[in-house]
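Sequence in, structure out.
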Amino acid sequence: MSEAQSTDKQHVIHLNSPRTLEECVTYAKGSRTERTYHEELMRRALNDRSWFSWKSQHYVGDRRTAYILDFFCPVGNVAIEVDGDYHHRDEQRVADRVREYVLSLNHAIQVFRIQNRQIEDPKLLADFIFAVDCVADVRQMQMEFVSSITRQGCVTLRKR
């Protein structure tokens, strides 16, 4: 798929976000087989370099508002968004920030963005994946710690 087609695909997704869950499911299934060139490079790099497994074109949300994430790792609740040229426009930057805020607030997902041209640099891409993996690992440890404290606190309160 050419860069122009890649940008057009991104344009359609983000102008219509958030989408209904049904729309997301249908679109995500098609997008898994029709990745952009840069999404395919990222998928291969994640498979080769990441400590964790990643889901591509993963949808998050409920029946009324759902979002499609380019790549999602359930360990640590982190997502990677591959940004084409369209994401440099001011209106899209604002839409992306709102989307990140909603994903963080409603779903506790930390979003990391990487531009197409950065994916083409193997060293930069490897460093990016390493950094995201480290954040995912730390977030997972934090969630496990909070969960264990919550369980222990509940047990202590019940004994009294």
